[in-house]
Each structure stands twice: as structure tokens, then as C-alpha cells.
């Protein structure tokens, strides 16, 4: 802790200020607000998590421990696909996709269980929210690389970038909306619930079809020229476009129609947009980006992914602490 010239205390790491003393006080008073309106969450995911917490989790287990344990299946699934498909275009054994599908579902279930355990034990905290949000942001990067390998797009940098765009963008903009509205609102059809379940189903398809690489390249409807791969990417991009429009509408309702005030909200998303634009330009329009992608495509998206994680977590921290 250090003091600035005005005598105000700040929590710092090295020379960078993370939380002011006022922000630390605000964090202690923070109360989470949010809702998931997905029918699958209401009638399947939430009841399942409730039963598992009640019957399988001792009262002494910390919810943050459940959050950390939830990362283990996600890391296992990512490591398994990385082992067989480092270049994002080599086929994996069919059984590996069954394992990854199970890991994805287990992660989602544990992600639902930690909040229920926190409410059950009365131990909800800003730290738990930050840990949960950081774990979710990391899982976005892990699962995105798995999706690239599943769709076999290692030869197509444009398609890889679109997959990354469809994964990171809705997460960041949902965090941005929460920062201004004070609540995390998930619609009737949303990524954290329905999108993850669709991903689980897609991974199980890869496990049970005879040749999943050929299946993703085959046409959805004969004669249309639209493959299952392109249909999946297009479907997610359309969903993301609608989700981001809803995020903008929610923030606009809070900020009002004053250009100056709404302009301030746009400044908060500028670093993320810059990371997308800069990363996309380097990958798709420069010789060095093409060379790195040809040799180690995963490195590019880990680079973009770490920038995304840092930006999303910092925005969530600012929301919790009530700081700009």
C-alpha cells in the first residue's frame, strides 16, 4: 500500500495501481446481481447443480474450491486435444472428443455449483466473483482452441479468427454491460448455458460419427455448398451479433443519448477492439503473422487470449470496486 501526493492510499503491485482504498471499501459492500433466463438453465442445468450441491458437496467445502476444481476438466480436455492436434488441423481419436464433451459439461456444471454453494453457506464474496470470472475467461480461450481443432480450420486463418471472435466478443461485452448496468443479464438463449450445451453436443457428434473431419466438411443440405463447418461458424456469428446489439442497447439505456456520456462508455471497449483489430491485421495481412500461424497457430490465439483475459478481468475488477 502506498500514498499519492494527496495522501490517498492505493493498493499497488510495483508501480501500477490496481485498487484504491475507496475501491477496496466498495468491494466489501458489493453484492452480485444477475439472472439466467435460459429455459435449459431453468429446467435442467440449475436443478442439476442444486441436487449435486445438496447431496454431493459437504457444507465445509469453499465455493472458491469448486471454481478451481472446475478448471481441471477444462485443462484436461484442452491438453488432450493439444496432444493430438497441435496444428489445429490434424484429426484426433474419436474417443478423445467424448472425453472433451464430458469435460465441457462437467466444467459448466461445476461453474453453476460454485454460486449455489456460496449462497448455501453464506460465503458469497467479491473474491469469489473475481475468481469465477477469471476462470470463465480462461476457459473461453481453452474451449476456443478446442473448437478450432474440432472444426479442422488449422489451414484457414480467417476461419480461426472468426471462431476466436465469436467466443471472446460476447464474454467481453457482457462484462462491459454488467459494468454499466450493475447486473449480468443472460437472455432466453445465451452462450454460457445454451452455447456450451451445443458445444458439448458437437463434441459428442465428433465422437460418434465415423469420420468427423469429413462430416464437418460435408454439406448441411446437398447442393447448397454450405458445409457443417461454415454453418456452425455462421450460426455463432449471427448469435454474437444479436447479443452484442443487446449489450449496446442496455448500456445506451443507462448512459442515455448524450454523446459525451455514451462516448465515455465506448472508450472502455477501445482496448479490446484494438486487440481484435491489431491481432486480426497481423494474422491476416502480414507475412510474419502468416508464418507464425503456419508453424504454431495456437501461439497467436494464446497471445490474443491472454490480452482478452487481462482486459475482461480488469473490467470486472473496476465493476466490483466501483472505479473507472
3D architecture notes:
The chain has 324 residues and is mainly alpha-helical. The chain is built from twelve helices and five strands. The strands form two sheets. It has a three-stranded antiparallel beta sheet with strand order 1-2-3. A two-stranded parallel sheet has the order 4-5. Helix 3 runs antiparallel to helix 4, helix 4 packs antiparallel against helix 7 and helix 6 runs parallel beside helix 9. The chain is globular and about 55 Å long.
Q: Which tags fit this structure?
A:
12 helices; 324 residues; 3-stranded antiparallel sheet; 5 strands; disordered N terminus
Quick summary:
This protein has 324 residues and is mainly α. It has helices at 21-29, 39-56, 63-84, 94-121, 126-151, 157-181, 191-208, 212-217, 228-255, 259-285, 287-295, 297-321, and strands at 2-3, 9-13, 16-20, 34-36, 184-186.
Fraction of helical residues: over 70%
Give the overall shape, derived from the CA principal axes: globular
Count of beta strands? 5
Oligomer: single chain
The profile of the biggest β sheet is:
3 strands, antiparallel
Tell me the series of helices and strands, N- to C-terminal.
EEEHEHHHHHEHHHHHH
Gap from first CA to last CA = 20 Å
Query: Roughly what fraction of the amino acids lie in strands?
Result: 5-15%
Return the average pLDDT rounded to an integer.
92
Low-confidence stretches: 1-9
